Prior knowledge:
By secondary structure, the chain is of the alpha/beta class. The protein has 15 helices and nine strands.
Amino acid sequence: MRGVSDPTLDLDQIRGFTKHVYEFMEGFVVASSLYFGVKLGLYAALRDGGPVDASDLAERTGLHPRWVQEWLRVQGAAGLLDHLGDERFEMSPLAATVLADESSLFYAAGAFTALPQRAANLEPLLESFKTGIGLPFDAAGPEGAHATELMFGNWFRQMLVSVMLPSLDGVTAKLSGGAKVADVGCGSGIAVLEMAKAFPASEVHGYDISVHAIERAERNKQGAGVSNAEFHLVSGEALPDDHSVDLVTTFDCVHDMTRPAEVMAAIRGAIADDGTWLMGDIKGAPSYAENLEKNPMVAMMYGISLTSCMSAGMSEAGGAGLGTLGLPEPRAREMAAAVGFSRFAVHDFGNPINLYYEIRP
């Protein structure tokens, strides 16, 4: 068979595998169309707007109808919008919840807003394969911090104070009476500000090494109108070491850290003997084989790790590089115990990606 490296291969097998390979290019270009949908307000214009054709949506958005037509065709072909025939399309309530409602707990389209920056990092990552040194979080630019806020912000707004903190032993009573809180890896500060608003007698500190995230946090603080929150552009190792902190939180960040063990040790030095550490991290399994078996999004998770999480974790010489799936529950238990924590309880609050650990000295 001409053009085939192994003459024993079946032509149907080759065609099937080729199709599988191109499915990943399909994912990239459809992801690009999601980026356009968010940034150009196309999803927002479709929400609660009924059926449209390209002319309707172009008039609604002020965009060129031919470009809008091709965008609608992508959305219909990908099953993101319903095609009603005659090139008329409609956004279903389900699609609106995930793609257009920025207040929804399940809003996912915001994750695509940093796509150009992440794609631009592919060239620098070629060098990372040679040197071993990855790219820091801020390599994605300001839009990286914004996308992270869009992915996680609603979870903190709707779940942190009302569901998560009340599930921890004695924590809300302590916060109501006035406590000291540290959110390590605070990002743009949504969790910090939600706790500061709910517990005005407490002081809440956010720590992050991202310039772009802290800039967003300071802007968010101005809009929140709170006086009991403060942000610090430092690593988690800069925590106070006097056991003065009653509650430490780390959400989706320990696996990204270059020195997670050192940060855990700093958390133990900061936390009071009757304090609590709430860690949220990815639902990973202890082995690659188990992840393949149990995680339906495993390829995406390892892909994110290669381009973001593991990269950030190796952005300094000697970085741990745990990766997206590199901190499963057994490893988190082991690392917490190694720095002096003795109690470890697991909470599943219904987050499709994370488990939450209540850790105490």
